[in-house]
Write a structure and sequence with these properties.
Elements: E1 6-11, H1 18-29, E2 32-35, H2 36-43, H3 51-74, E3 79-84, H4 88-99, E4 104-112, H5 114-127, H6 137-144, E5 158-163
Parallel strand pairs: 1-3, 1-4, 2-3, 4-5
Length: 166
């Protein structure tokens, strides 16, 4: 009998800690970690200079990743998606990866204050200077306009982590 894996998804504003949480879960669950940032950097080096560039190249990844993730899930392995589930449309795509493979989803919403997100973004720019041109307060404000808070009714296994203190 094939052991079924899980699909782990994360939602939270830019700088909320989605990548940190994804890495931790992948290590704890011995799961395959797929990072949007890593795929974009490898496939489109130095081509993402604006939010519109990010949106364009992110959309180009979806067909390839849809097939790739489904193939991994069908083996019974768990997959941690370090991809933002920050809009209804993004969540629908990510959910579709699991529903067509009959895989359970674990969804985590990192509900983090704007102040703390900006503080964490500033720290990330120090630790990863190559991201400093994109990881700015202006980009955070632009991206945050599109953020759609998830509802617990969207996922049967929904977890919310609230952090507002710095």
């Amino acid at each position: 009998m094939l052991v079924k894996g899980k699909l782990f998804l994360f939602c939270g504003k830019m700088g909320a800690g989605k990548s940190t949480a994804a890495k931790k879960v992948a290590a704890e669950q011995n799961a395959v970690l797929l990072s949007e940032d890593e795929w974009l950097a490898a496939l489109y080096p130095e081509q993402i200079e604006s939010f519109n560039d990010y949106m364009k190249f992110s959309r180009l990844l979806r067909p390839l990743l849809t097939i790739h993730v489904k193939n991994i899930l069908q083996t019974g392995a768990s997959v941690v998606m370090d991809f933002p589930a920050n809009t209804t449309k993004q969540r629908a795509w990510l959910k579709s990866l699991a529903t067509t493979t009959d895989t359970k989803i674990e969804f985590t919403y990192l509900k983090v204050s704007n102040e703390l997100c900006l503080k964490q973004i500033a720290q990330r720019c120090i630790e990863q200077p190559a991201r400093a041109n994109f990881d700015t307060k202006a980009v955070f404000n632009q991206v945050t306009q599109y953020f759609e808070e998830p509802s617990p009714s969207e996922f049967s296994n929904y977890k919310e982590i609230i952090r507002s203190k710095t």
